[in-house]
Structures are given as C-alpha cells and as structure tokens.
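Late entry, evening session. Most of the bench is empty. Finally got around to the prediction I had been postponing all week. Sequence below, unchanged from the version circulated by S.P.
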Amino acid sequence: MMTLENKVALVTGGTSGIGKATAIAMGAAGAKVVFSGRRETEGEETAALIRETGAECLFVRSDVSREADVQALVEKTIATYGKLDCAFNNAGVESPSKPLHEQPVEEFDKLMAINVRGLFLCMKYEIQQMLNQGSGVIVNNSSMGGLIGFPGVSRANASKYSTYILNIG
C-alpha cells in the first residue's frame, strides 16, 4: 500500500468527485491534506471524511481562476504545514453540450478561466514553493476529451489537454 507519511498534499477541486476521493485517499495514506474548492458546505463534509481516516486536513475556500486565491492557498499550506510535497490539480468545470456556434462567449470565458488559467496559476505558485524547498511532485488531472474530443463540447475539449506529471528534485 502507498504511504504518504510525513508528506503534505494539496488537492484543488477537492469538494466533490475525483478531487474529494483523492483528498480522502491521500489522508488515508498518511498525508496531511490541504484541499480547496468554492463550496464551503461540501468542504466541511470532505474535511470530516478525511479526519475519519485519522489524517490532519485543512479546507481553504478558493477559486483557482483568481490569482490571489491561488497564492493564498499555497501560502496557507506552507504557513500551516511548512512544506508542499505533492499537488493534485483537479479543479475544473464542464460546459453544456451544444454546437460551437450556439455557445455563449461568457461560458467560454468561465471555462477557460478555471480549466486553463486556473491550472497555470496553481502550477506557478506550486512550482515556486517546490523549487524553494528542492523537491515536490505535481499531477494535473485532465479529460479524455482533451485527447479524442467529443461532439458538442469543443470548448471543454480544448481546455482539458493538460495531463502530465512534474517531478522537482
């Protein structure tokens, strides 16, 4: 079984779905877990589930499309636990399925702000910290839509081609 004893893990989009499951699993594997999301109630529910595994955790309400939120998230992680060993960048949104010519620009802007800009901001601040401490691992979650594309969701397809692992140190 994988162990994350003495590790500090950061999970974005940790209030539901894959992010929630990952945050709980990292806690069960021994990590101190910092996770983020935009919804306070779901954050409190996830925190309770992580604590049931015996792990320490911290929920930070944040929106990855806002630079100040992402910077504060990483700073709060360091202030609380002193380091950042691994990050799972999972926060993302989907778009309603409809032909491209019927898709509002506002929906495009929101999707790109979270799925693309948000990923860039997370990596920017995570990498800075990991370089300062000399080590760290970042995993970015993506979608099959970024590889093969699906009809009616061209915006989401374009925004989700970003799966890779970065290992520092």
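Two things to note before I forget:
The longest helix spans residues 105-133.
Strands lie at 8-11, 32-37, 57-61, 86-89, 136-140, 165-168.
Will write this up properly tomorrow.
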